[in-house]
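2024-03-11 09:14:02 DEBUG pipeline.ingest accepted 1 chain
2024-03-11 09:14:02 DEBUG pipeline.ingest length=100
2024-03-11 09:14:03 DEBUG pipeline.predict start
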Amino acid sequence: MSADRPPPVALSLGALLESLAARLDRLHDGLDGVLIRAIPVRAGGPGKVYGGYVYARLQDARTGDAIDARVPEQLAAALGWNGEAVFAVLLRLKPGRGVY
């Protein structure tokens, strides 16, 4: 470590997620969303509607990694499920408990 650089600071998970969201925001010039390429997969069955949304997962075609998503009911009816597509998404990062 050089003498002119301060030592690294250990971040909590919540602070890390906030930092990541801020970096994404700067990367996209503060636009209202981020474009991602993923495969939409219905979460848990036939796609029950809760509060106007259908819950789904957006899965990476190459790695299989996935994030949870809420899809508006009107969009879900016309969405090509289980096929790769490009989505404009708003990210909301929230720490949770459990094993990831």
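2024-03-11 09:14:41 DEBUG pipeline.report Residues 32-95 form one domain.
2024-03-11 09:14:41 DEBUG pipeline.predict end
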